[in-house]
């Protein structure tokens, strides 16, 4: 039992880094839902595309280019967020804008179709096989935990957590203080009234899709660097898990997306460590069922209140 605490700390760190990625993706779901009341099920594929764009950028620059690692990663992030911003805008224009006045089921089916299209689009372009991502940030911090157990904290996963925290703080400040952020909050409360007050609601909706896509791209690159491989199908399960995190925290609430991502990541990691890795998905979706049964608005969600 003397090594129980070190093992628990190791799993909590692993869960926190995984939950940070879920939170980045979940924000896209929660912002879109908070403003137009719809779920963008193609959002997970934007995450996947961001990871691929980062890998292509890395291949173009070259690991042996002589550039500092931080500059290579910054270039990967910059190109990925720009490309996925375009994808986010196109998805909104093609799969959502023409269907805003349709019954809710219609844009949902459209989003699922867009998800399948993007999966196969990337599989045709890059191949359906796993692709290796070079380890740009090797090494880890190691701490003795007793009885020979060693707490292992990879630098790549530390980067995931640090970047996520910084982005969350910046996003919160932007939504709270910027002109577009105030417009987004107004649209989330009453779209028609915001339109009457002169707010360009079409621009706000497009901005929401673009911003969510950019955050998802950052998550895609960070997890690719941490895990070391990717394929065209990583976006589907990650998107479903992030949607679960958004519902868990309270869909429509940005703090809820963050909280839900962390809780889900830790729950999955602990289930894999102390039960079986085959049960981690069961635990994740069991949480979704329980929260829908006993608190449908999520942990931080509140009906009829400002959320975005």
Gross geometry: globular
Quaternary status of these chains?
Answer: single chain
- Terminal-residue CA separation: 45 Å
Question: Rounded to an integer, what's the Rg over CA atoms?
Answer: 20 Å
Order of helices and strands: HHHHEEEHHHHEHHH
Structure class: mainly alpha
Number of separate helices: 11
Give the strand content: 5-15%
Please tell me the overall pLDDT.
85
- For the secondary structure, the number of strands is 4
Low-pLDDT parts are: 303-307
Strand order of the largest sheet: 1-4
Characterize the main sheet. 2 strands, antiparallel
Helix content: over 70%
Describe the structure.
This protein has 308 residues and is mainly alpha-helical. It contains 11 helices and 4 strands. It has a two-stranded antiparallel ribbon with strand order 1-4. Strands 2-3 form a two-stranded antiparallel sheet. The longest helix is centred in the N-terminal third of the chain and has 33 residues, at 4-36. The relative contact order is 0.21.
Task: Briefly say what this structure is.
The chain is mainly α.
Task: Name some characteristics of this structure.
4 strands, globular, mainly alpha, two-stranded antiparallel ribbon, disordered C terminus
Itemize the secondary structure elements and their pairings.
Blueprint: H1 4-36, H2 43-61, H3 69-96, H4 105-126, E1 131-132, E2 140-146, E3 149-154, H5 155-177, H6 179-189, H7 191-196, H8 201-227, E4 229-230, H9 234-249, H10 254-274, H11 280-294
Antiparallel strand pairs: 1-4, 2-3
């Amino acid at each position: 039992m003397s090594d129980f605490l070190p093992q628990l700390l190791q799993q909590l760190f692993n869960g926190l880094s995984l939950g940070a990625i879920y939170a980045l993706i979940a924000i896209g779901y929660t912002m879109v839902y908070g403003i137009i009341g719809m779920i963008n099920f193609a959002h997970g594929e934007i995450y996947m595309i961001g990871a691929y764009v980062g890998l292509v950028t890395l291949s173009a620059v070259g690991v042996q280019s002589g550039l500092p690692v931080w500059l290579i990663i910054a270039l990967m992030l910059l190109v990925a967020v720009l490309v996925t911003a375009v994808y986010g805008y196109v998805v909104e224009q093609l799969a959502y804008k023409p269907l805003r006045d349709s019954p809710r089921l219609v844009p949902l089916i459209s989003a699922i179709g867009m998800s399948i299209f993007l999966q196969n689009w990337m599989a045709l372009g890059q191949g359906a096989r796993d692709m290796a991502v070079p380890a740009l940030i090797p090494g880890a911090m190691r701490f003795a935990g007793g009885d020979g157990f060693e707490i292992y904290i990879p630098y790549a996963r530390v980067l995931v957590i640090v970047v996520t925290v910084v982005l969350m703080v910046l996003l919160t400040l932007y939504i709270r203080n910027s002109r577009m952020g105030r417009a987004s909050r107004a649209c989330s409360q009453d779209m028609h009234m915001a339109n009457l007050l002169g707010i360009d609601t079409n621009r706000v909706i497009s901005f929401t899709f673009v911003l969510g896509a950019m955050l998802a791209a950052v998550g895609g690159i960070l997890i690719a660097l941490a895990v070391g491989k990717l394929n065209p199908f990583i976006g589907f399960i990650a998107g479903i898990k992030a949607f679960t995190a958004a519902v868990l925290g309270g869909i429509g609430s940005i703090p809820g997306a963050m909280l839900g991502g962390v809780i889900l990541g830790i729950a999955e990691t602990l289930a894999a460590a102390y039960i079986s890795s085959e049960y981690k998905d069961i635990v994740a979706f069991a949480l979704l069922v329980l929260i829908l049964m006993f608190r449908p608005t999520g942990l931080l969600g509140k009906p009829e209140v400002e959320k975005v």
